[in-house]
Amino acid sequence: MYVETPVSTYTLNENQAMRETGVSRYISIYMGEAYMEFLWFIVIGVAAGWLAGQVITDGGFHLISNTIVGMIGALLGGFLFRRLGIPAGSGILVSLIVATIGAIVLLFVVRQVRKA
């Protein structure tokens, strides 16, 4: 006895629409999270650069340079903390502290190179 069972109850267009909706929803959620992470990275970089500029006051960079130093310092601070085996944890405050320490180290090195 041969019984024919349908493979799918949806038509090709409905399957395609469901697949595209799922993929586009996944991409939009992922991109939204990526944009928010990048936005927080910039905000923390600005704050860390400003704080590092307040701590190391000889010379003086302007806001844009301090922001760039803060963002690079955030990367440097994360690298240094991992390299030294210090658990950084998570959260905005911890990220700001790590980024500020990295920015202070970077500003110190940059200003020493400028003096030489």
UniProtKB/TrEMBL annotation:
Location of the protein in the cell: Cell membrane
Membrane topology summary: Multi-pass membrane protein
Any one Gene Ontology cellular component term annotated for this protein: plasma membrane
Keyword annotations from UniProtKB, A to Z: Cell membrane, Membrane, Transmembrane, Transmembrane helix
Domain of life: Bacteria
Predominant location category: membrane
The UniProt record lists the keyword Cell membrane: yes
Sequence intervals crossing the membrane: 38-56, 63-82, 88-110
Family: Belongs to the UPF0410 family.
Name of protein: Transglycosylase associated protein
